[in-house]
Each structure stands twice: as structure tokens, then as C-alpha cells.
Amino acid sequence: MFKIGILGAGVMGTTHAAGWAQTPAHFAGIHALDAPRAAALAAEYGIRAYDSVDALLADVDVVDICTPTHLHYEMVLQAAAAGKHIICEKPLALDVAQGAEMIDACRRAGVTLLVAHVVRFFPEYASAQAIVSRGEIGDVAVVRLTRCSYQPRLAADNWFLDAAKSGGMMLDLMIHDFDYARWIAGEVESVYARSVRGRQPDAPEDYGIAILRHTSGAISNVEGGWAYPPPMFRTALEIAGSTGLIEHPADSSMPLSLHLKASGSGDVDAVGIPGSPLDESPYTTEIKHFYDVIAHGAAPRVSAEDGLAAVRIALAARQSAQSGRAVRIEEV
Amino acid sequence: MRIGILSFAHLHAEAYLGALLAMPDVEVIGIADENVERGRYFAGQFGVRQFEDYDGLLREKPDAVVITSENARHLPLVRMAADAGAAILCEKPLATTLDDARAIVNVCRAAGVPLMTAFPMRFSTPAVEIKKLIDGGGLGHVYGCNATNQGALPEFHQAENLPFLKRDWFTDPLLAGGGAVADHVVHLADLLRWYFANEIREVYAVTNQIMHKGKVGVETGGLIMLNFANGTFASIDCSWSKPAYYPTWGGLALELVAEKGLATMDAFRQVMTVYSERAGRPHYAYWGSDANAGMLRDFIGAVSDKRAPAVSGEDGLRAVEVVLAAYESARTGQPVSLG
After folding, report:
1. Chain A residues within an 8 Å CB radius of B212
2. Residue B260: how many other CB atoms lie within 10 Å
3. CB contact B210 to A (< 8 Å)
4. Of B221, B227, B333, the CB nearest to A326
5. Is there a single domain that holds both residue A128 and residue A199?
6. Considering A116, A140, A161, which residue would you say is the last residue of a domain?
7. Where in chain A does DSSP place strands (E)?
């Protein structure tokens, strides 16, 4: 049985911890710069709180990197050098060269690298992909994806808003649907995008739309934003094919609708996360799958190369939003 | 107010005629169609007089005409109607070329006859609510718009299975000016110009022909990005992506993400879903207000009050510019500037 440790105790570290606790893996511990938060999680799961990355790496077989994006590169290289299998939160990296280097380092070290593109594990998204792959709607023609929420509001070090750390909204949020569009419609050839921050980097919030052209001829409209009033989070998908159509609009598949008289607290999560009541959180489904990949050699639903391809599309979108020109994917 | 309809090539002719017949201050003098069988069919359906040719109808000196010929055949009818001194409501898109669109505007101006482009969405009651919200400052600056005007393949829009009722010109690149882009981009391009009181400066488009492949020779899928002078961007999905068995013909919907929040509008959401064994599939029964009737009331009011219609010929011309720029962008792979 392998030993797993988590780096980072933010929203994703906390979410992944709940997932690992439900696998047969030996959940050994956690390390985070936010030591009190790491200690609280350690207490919750009866695991160790390591006081350094090195201490954690020395004690585990697998590391799950849930730190802010700008730290992924160094931590993956460090873990690969230590011979550990790696799960890395999306986006894999802030640029293509670093991402390629990370993949290369893992290959040379003979360790597995998995990227946590969780949308592939959301049941509605997984189901739509299965319907498409069974040929029920024929060849994919037009894909529409939406993912909008409010601006992340971490009390301390709101790194999401620092493009040098997160890559910005397109790399942090829209990357989910860039990956999904590529999963559904194949490789992307060119990207044209507009966003509020593309032309005005100091804008108070961000919203963008990207149009992708796939090698297959399919086209995708990807919408993303950190501009809704909190606590709103909407996602939507629509896939039109040569012999059918899948519709999954925002707002229409919510099994619950609660309209409660205000309690006055008005608490809003620091980072919006979409969710529907399910037996198992899609994040846990994802972690259990990663467990199967590492423990039993199952074929990964999302590879490190997929993670890098998504980064490339997001960077093309960001570049297009800044330049106003369509960007061919090989230019990135 | 005496009014006639020139051509039944476009399926909207039926909707317009039905709405006109319901208006107490309007006398429908009849319809003329170069497809004589089709003209006879609809004259019979609606109980109106059929003219064998357009001249015959225009000799009756109507105050106004509605032109619903194929997109590429508007100009000759506009010339005839303008010569006869009739006010003109012309179906969208105004034309398939810039030269034709400009000529339509100029011919009417020279003859001194009012010209309105048929953009009924400006009269859709849900769409008007959004205009009021924007004008009242309720949204603040609009960052962007994600819009759809999708439909079924127009060939499915056929009143009855009779050969002369086939509307297959919608997929004839010469008569229609293209496929889904020519058919569907203009409504939203016009609505958004009106919403933002702002002009479109740049257009990007991608198109494909995966749906109905081999069946039609025009694009059936399209995504367009409009860039407005004020920085607002808007994406439009104009695809013919609704299957023949979809519960309705298609729709027009948009969301606006703005400084002050989010607004969404689905112009054809006022429906109930009907499950009938006779129909064999669920379908939507629309119960909202009729935007076509609102548009026709404005047109007729403008003619009788001698004021400008709410939508002009220039508005139609601007939309044609957008369509042509979209096709150029789809060819070149880069955004195309306007004006």
C-alpha cells in the first residue's frame, strides 16, 4: 500500500484530503505554509503535519500537489527527483516550457504524473463525453461551455488575482473547459479570445470568451468569468453533432431550489466551487481514480500531456485576448 | 392603410400576413408571388387576393408593402415598390452584397419612401426589458455578451409537404448569401447595436459544415465574435444545430456579464411543454407576445404618422456589413475591421 502526502492546505488541499481519506491508500500527512491549517487537517484525519516539503517527500511514495500554480514547477521537479509519483492540481504549469520540463523530468525519473482536471470526473461532463464517444450524436460540430463565478476572495495572499502566480482567470478557470473541449472535440488548431483583463490588466474583475477551432473542423465557444455576484456559480454545456444534440443549460438541472429568509450572516466561500448533491463528490471520484492509476496501473482518464495541452490552449487564449489576433496553437 | 406582400419565398411572410390581417386599421390588398402556385396556395390559406405579378399589386397603389423574397432578390422588388411610392418593410438580411444593401437604402431615400428592416427582436417583450435595464444604468458597463440564435435546418420550416412550398433557397449560397451566418447573425448584431447604442468595429468568425454534411452546400455551424467600439465583446452562435425533432424551431438567447452583475434573456422562453401522442414528440407551445406584430405596428404607425420607423435601412446595412465581415474572417482566420 502506497503512502500519500498532500502539499498545500487551501481549498484544493482540503478537498483532496477528504478524497484520499476514502481510498485504501495510507494517507500519511500534509505540509502547508499555513501551518495552523495543516495542523487542523492533520488532527481531522489523524495524519502527520510535516514541517517541510523535504520531510513530507522523505516519508511518502506519492505526493499530491495542491499549492498555488506558480509553485507547481519546482515542487514537481523536486518530487520527481525524489522518485515520488505525483498528482498535480491544474493548471500543470504557468508556461509550456516548464510544463514540458516537468513531464520530461517525471518520465526520466520513472514516476507517474497526473493532472487534476476534475471536470472530467463531474458526472454530467463524464456522461456527455460517454454519449459523444458512443457516437450517439455523430461527429462533434459545435461545443458550448460556460463556467462563471465570482472573484476568489482569499483573506490572506489572494494569489488567484496575481497573474504572475495563477496565470489569471483564463489559465485558472477557463482551463477546465479548454481541457474538456479538447477531450470532446479533439486537438485545437487556433484560438481567438476576448477578455476584460486582456486589454485592461488592472480591471476590477475578469470575464472572457474564447472561440476554438479544432483540427477536426469542430468549433467551440468557451465562456469563463470571475464577475458574477457571490455566491453565484453557473456551468453549462451543449454539444451539437452531425446526428444529435446534448443540452445541459445552466440553472435547469438543479435538483434543489432553496429560497430561505435571510439569516443575516451572508457568508460566502472564499472560492466558488460548483456542486450538486451526489453520493460521492466528483473530487473524491477523481482521487479514487488516481489511486487506481497508481496502485493498479489503470489507464488515466487525464494524462500529463492532456494537462500540458490545456495549458497551451489557455495561453493561446490569453495571448489572443491581449493581441486581438487569432493565435495558432503552435505559436505558443 | 392599404398594404400588400411581395413574394412568399421567406417563411416569415406567413407570420407577417397573419399579424396584418389581425390589425383593424390595415387593409391587406393582397399578395403577389412569382411562384404562382405558392401565391395561390397562401392566398387561399389566408383568404386574400392573389396577384399574378408584382406590377399588378403595385398598380393598386398600396401605401406600404412587405418584401419577403429570397435574400438576394430584395433589391429588384425594392426598386419597383419605391417607384410605386410604397413604404417598404424589407425582410432581413437586407441583401447578400454590400452594393445591393447600399442600393436598397439609396433607392428608398431618393424616392422618399420609408424603409424599415425587419428586425422583430427589437419588439420582443423580453428583449425590450433588457434594453430598459441597460438604458436605466442597471447593468453599468457591459463587459461581454454570450448569445445564441440557433435553429433547425431551414428546410424543415415547410408549411406542408408540397413541392412548390420547399424553401430550399435558404441553403443556396447565391440566393441566401450563405448559410447559418447569413440567416442568423443579423438579429443579434442588430439587437446588440441597439442595446449598446454603439457600433461594431471588428468581427471574427469560424464556421464549419459538419451538421447536415453532404446535404447542403453552405456552412451549418458558426461562432462569431463582435467587438464594439466601447470595448464590449459579444459572441454569437448562429448554428443550425437544432435537430428536426427538437421541440421548437430554435431560439434567441443571451447573457450579459456586466459591472453590476449578470442578466440573461431567452426571447422564446415563454412556452409550455406539450406531450401529445398525436405529435409523437414533446413540443413547445409559445404563449408570449408576438414580436412580429409589434414590429408591424411600428411600421404601420410610422407610415401613417409620417415618422421614421424604429429600425432603419441603415440598420439593415450595418448588419449586412457584419455578415460579410464574418465570412471574410472565416476565410482568413483573423478578425476583420469594419468602417
Report:
1. 242
2. 13
3. yes
4. B333
5. yes
6. A116
7. 3-7, 26-31, 48-49, 62-65, 85-89, 113-116, 140-149, 188-195, 206-214, 219-226, 234-241, 244-248, 327-328
Residue B228 contacts A, CB cutoff 8 Å: no
What span, in angstroms and rounded, lies between the C-alpha atoms of B335 and B325? 8
| CA-closest candidate to residue B241, choices A74, A137, A289 | A137
| CATH code (residue A218) | 3.30.360.10
| Statement to judge: residues A149 and A281 lie in one domain | yes
ipTM comes to 0.94
In this structure, are A61 and A85 located in the same domain?
yes
CA dist A161 → A33, A87, A153, A165, A197 (Å) = 19, 24, 9, 8, 11
A177 interface with B at CB cutoff 8 Å = no
Taking the Cβ of residue A39 and every Cβ of chain B, the question of whether any pair is shorter than 8 Å is answered with no
The answer to whether residues A62 and A158 belong to one domain is no
Domain count, chain A: 2
**Spatial distance between the Cα atoms of A124 and A238, rounded to a whole number of angstroms:** 11
Same domain assignment for residues A312 and A278: yes
Find the domain containing A248 and state its range: 119-293+302-331
Contact A221 B237 (CB under 8 A): yes
Q: Enumerate domains of chain B plus CATH numbers.
A: 2-119 (3.40.50.720), 121-290+312-337 (3.30.360.10)
Residues A327 and A280 in one domain: yes
Q: Give the end of a domain, one of A100, A116, A132.
A: A116
Backbone angles phi, psi at A317, to 5 degrees: -65, -45
A190 touching chain B per CB within 8 A: yes
Domain CATH number, residue A29:
3.40.50.720
CB–CB contact A242 B211 (8 Å): yes
- What 3-state DSSP class applies to B312? coil
Residues A186 and A279 grouped into a single domain: yes
Instruction: Tell me the pLDDT of chain A (332 aa) as tens digits.
Output: 899 999 999 999 999 999 999 999 999 999 999 999 999 999 999 999 999 999 999 999 999 999 999 999 999 999 999 999 999 999 999 999 999 999 999 999 999 999 999 999 999 999 999 999 999 999 999 999 999 999 998 888 899 999 999 999 999 999 999 999 999 999 999 999 999 999 999 999 999 999 999 999 999 999 999 999 998 999 999 999 999 999 999 877 778 877 777 665 567 888 887 778 899 999 999 999 999 999 999 999 999 999 999 999 999 999 999 999 999 999 99
